[in-house]
Design brief:
Gfo/Idh/MocA-like_OxRdtase_N, about 280 residues, Rossmann fold, NAD(P)-bd_dom_sf, Gfo/Idh/MocA-like oxidoreductase N-terminal domain-containing protein, alpha/beta, seven-stranded mixed sheet, Dihydrodipicolinate Reductase, domain 2, six-stranded parallel sheet
Length: about 280
């Protein structure tokens, strides 16, 4: 059995709660989360010690211990990417396959640093929103996409990744500029590609399901709703990554996604004006 170590900001959160059972099931018991580290206890939930006791996972006191004892590593902290550099750096120097949960980094500079560190030390590593692996999205024809309109729930800061990730996976990473076109209660961003193609993301609140409307140069269009079990597809891909060390997500796409999010915040300060992105 291969041992997986969690490295988290605090352990009592949804991803840490669900991943152990899903990974063990998807790997037919060949992989198991056995170690965990939390930088702090949850302020509104279980302590790290209580969470680990409930899960039968050994709580370790340092990241170094988790990295040393584990075969594979998962850096969590899904809603606090500002801690990913601190939490991930030792894992990325280990040479052991490492997954860094969404949102990968708080800004482009940190994203570049994390990838450079992993490459320098020969550490297989990737990050992704689970929405990338929705079968409805992955099966969509990519050739000839001219525009995409995406809608979904949640706030821009921690949920825009779930709209931007599928767009970049479908349209590529050659993004040149962004424009904020939303309101305080309904954030929205126009994404411009270097060749003139465009996409929009729109946050319409908690009751709004994710969907993409795609328009092709041919005039054809399609509406895609991720109704498949995209988390199961994501976990299947994660298990395959740990088994092979083969990364399926292009780092150029992840860097583009983080750049869009960072500059989306900047664009929100000057709505309806294009903000150019670094190349």
């Amino acid at each position: 059995m291969k041992k997986i170590g969690f490295i988290d900001y605090f352990l009592d959160e949804w991803h840490a709660e669900k991943y152990p059972e899903w990974i063990e099931s998807a790997s037919n018991g060949a992989m198991k989360v056995t170690y965990a580290y939390g930088k702090k206890d949850s302020e509104n939930g279980l302590s790290n010690a209580q969470w680990c006791a409930n899960k039968g996972i050994e709580l370790l006191t340092t990241i170094e211990e988790v990295v040393e004892k584990s075969d594979y590593l998962i850096v969590l902290s899904p809603d606090h990417p500002e801690f990913h550099e601190e939490l991930a750096m030792l894992a990325l120097q280990s040479g052991k396959p490492t997954y860094v949960d969404k949102t990968f980094a708080p800004d482009r500079a940190t994203a570049l640093l994390l990838f450079e560190t992993a490459q320098k030390h020969g550490t297989p590593m990737y990050s992704s929103s689970a929405l990338r692996f929705a079968s409805e999205y992955s099966a969509a024809p990519r050739q000839g996409i001219e525009t995409i309109c995406s809608i979904g729930p949640g706030r821009f800061d921690n949920y825009s990744i779930h709209q931007i990730e599928p767009i970049i996976s479908l349209m590529g990473s050659d993004v040149s500029r962004v424009m904020y076109i939303g309101t305080p209660h309904s954030p929205a961003l126009l994404i411009g590609f270097a060749d003139g193609r465009q996409a929009t993301i729109n946050h319409f609140g908690g009751g709004c399901p994710f969907s993409l409307t795609i328009n092709y140069e041919s005039g054809d269009s399609s509406i895609l709703r991720p109704e498949s079990d995209f988390f199961a597809s994501f976990i299947k891909q994660l298990v395959a990554f740990f088994e092979t060390g083969e990364v399926k997500v292009d780092q150029a796409e992840t860097i583009a996604i983080i750049t869009i999010i960072e500059f989306g915040f900047k664009a929100a300060k000057t709505p309806y004006q294009w903000i150019e992105l670094p190349s």
